[in-house]
Specification:
mainly alpha; about 40% helix; about 10% strand; two-stranded antiparallel sheet; elongated; about 100 residues
Length: about 100
């Protein structure tokens, strides 16, 4: 069993609390605490995606699924060729990559 020392005190090592936070008045009159960090507003052109982003995403998904289905129905070539399968999967991955750019 470990021996107790005279200097060991249970409890917090750091002082309780932190620096006092500023109170910011809002439009409704209620006070809120504000953090000390500034976050710049996002420009309007980055908030809305162009119309072609979701259209391209849906197009990639649709064409990828059609290519895979046509491959399994053996309408694009012999069943020994997996090139069309990889093309379809690549188009689906491109659809997922495009979906990350949609706001």
């Amino acid at each position: 069993m470990a021996r107790k020392t005279k200097d060991a005190r249970p409890g917090r090592v750091t002082p309780k609390g932190g620096p006092p936070k500023r109170r910011v008045a809002t439009v409704t009159g209620a006070a809120e605490t504000a953090s000390g960090r500034y976050t710049a507003p996002i420009p309007t052109e980055f908030k809305v995606s162009p119309w072609w982003v979701p259209a391209l995403m849906i197009g990639f998904f649709g064409i990828g699924i059609v290519v895979i289905l046509l491959n399994y129905l053996s309408l694009l070539g012999g069943p020994a060729s997996n090139v069309y399968l990889f093309v379809g999967l690549g188009l689906i991955v491109a659809g997922f990559v495009t979906s990350t750019r949609w706001h």
